[in-house]
Amino acid sequence: MMPGIKRARDGVEKKESEISASPFMPMFETFRSELDEHHDRKERIIKASRDITAASKKMIFALQRVRTLRSDIPPKIAQENRERAAAMLNQFTAISADLKGINAWRYQRQISGGIQEYMEAITFDHYLRHQTLMTIEEASATLPDIIELTGDDYVLGIFDLVGELMRFAITTMATTGALAGSSKTRESREGAIDRDILMDMRELRMSFEELDTTSCGGTSLAKDVEKKMEVMKTCVEKVETAVYGMIIRGQERPKGWVPDLSGDRAPVESY
Fold it and tell me: What is the greatest pairwise CA distance in the chain?
């Protein structure tokens, strides 16, 4: 296709010297360069966020093979996850230059999904090891200095963590016949409070229900919290239902039985 011909207002073809002499051309060439840099930077961040999300999911899937709390992760799973964690840190480091200064907020939406999934993975790993919730300061320390962990991303990652705790609790009950963290599955340390995973999930639910997001209009937290709140409550109630069934009719069920939580049933009273 032939390039277009530049013409003056009277229809006469412009000369090359007249075209290049336009005082507006350098300004628009600068705009073009800035837009190209913006789109290239945005694509790099999106790709890194997707890679981090994929690695985090693999890390979580591996951790779901663990069956105990407050103990070391099995060596094979621990080694696999160390490699995944190192790869994710490399991804964060690779885009750190793109997230300096004001760009940290300009591209917050593009990196937020990867950070939330990363939070879900490392807090799940921390919980399995210590049966405690990783604080935002501890989580932030695992990231490169240039990557800022916002309170929104941390909280939304913890919302998603409840879903993984639900899967872990249900699977553990099916394979061991006891609730993870209870005295039946581990020896209580002298002077320690015997807490099971359901107690921890209920405490998280109570803390989330006290969360006030009325002043967070327009943020990712305000947009997602309502949907995630309902999912979180459903996850806790599923574990409660499974525990009730295990206590009431546990002796009648064979080892390895997994509760069917997909059907419709009356709401569970939470308290």
Answer: 95
Q: Are 133 and 78 spatial neighbours (Cβ–Cβ below 8 Å)?
A: no
- Phi, psi (5° rounding) for residue 264? -80, 135
Residue whose tokens read 């207002």: 9
Residues 6+ apart with CB under 8 A from 159: 208, 224, 225, 228, 229, 231, 232
Model confidence over 196-239: pLDDT tens digits?
999 999 999 999 998 877 766 666 677 788 889 999 999 999 99
Residue with tokens 């094979």: 76
- The helix (run of H) or strand (run of E) holding residue 80 is helix 75-94
**What's the start-to-end Cα distance of the chain, in Å?**
73
- Interior CA angle at 268 toward 267 and 271, to 5°? 135
Q: 82-121 pLDDT, tens per residue? A: 999 999 999 999 999 999 888 888 898 899 999 999 999 9
Tokens, residue 264: 């419709």
Q: Hey, is 188 helix, strand or coil? A: coil
* Structure token pair of residue 128: 């399995």
